[in-house]
Amino acid sequence: MCNDVKVITEVIKVDKVYSFLISPIVSVDDKSAVFNAVRDYLEKVLLDFLCVVMENRRFPLLLAIFEQFFVLVKQYKKRFDVEITSPYLLSKKEVSGIIDVLKTKYGTVENIINNVNPEILGGFIVRVGFNVIDVSLNNYLQNLSEISKITICSVG
């Protein structure tokens, strides 16, 4: 089914196809006819889903729905994307060390993005989905500053 969804996603991204499918002028029957013409090549569940989306006039949301579908498939298969932010471009050995630690908790890495942000001073910030692991020097100094303020306020 994932391959079918990928194909449908690519077809929908074509401007003329997308315009046709979201047009309020084109009837739902005409839109459904497009997918019925290729029904032998799609899984029935996917075809039924597409028809429901069109009947409910939610087609403009379909790309976002499919995007979330692929996120859930990745999670199910224990595959993830990693975004690492550091003050300099990390070496392959450094990235490999970080990834080895993450594999035990999250699974298989699909994509690695290494961003450079000199403002974090040292260390790194790792993002895996909505999870953030911040071991940057900047974060450490901010935490130290907060603790100092609390300590000073409690003494005074």
Automatic annotation (TrEMBL):
Pfam families: OSCP. InterPro entries: ATP_synth_OSCP/delta_N_sf, ATPase_OSCP/dsu. The keyword Cell wall biogenesis/degradation does not apply. It comes from the Bacteria. One of its GO terms (cellular component) is plasma membrane. It is a peripheral membrane protein. Keywords: ATP synthesis, Cell membrane, CF(1), Hydrogen ion transport, Hydrolase, Ion transport, Membrane, Transport. It is found in: Cell membrane; Membrane. One of its GO terms (molecular function) is proton-transporting ATP synthase activity, rotational mechanism. F(1)F(0) ATP synthase produces ATP from ADP in the presence of a proton or sodium gradient. F-type ATPases consist of two structural domains, F(1) containing the extramembraneous catalytic core and F(0) containing the membrane proton channel, linked together by a central stalk and a peripheral stalk. During catalysis, ATP synthesis in the catalytic domain of F(1) is coupled via a rotary mechanism of the central stalk subunits to proton translocation. Belongs to the ATPase delta chain family. PANTHER family: ATP SYNTHASE DELTA CHAIN. This is ATP synthase subunit delta. It comes from Candidatus Neoehrlichia procyonis str. RAC413.
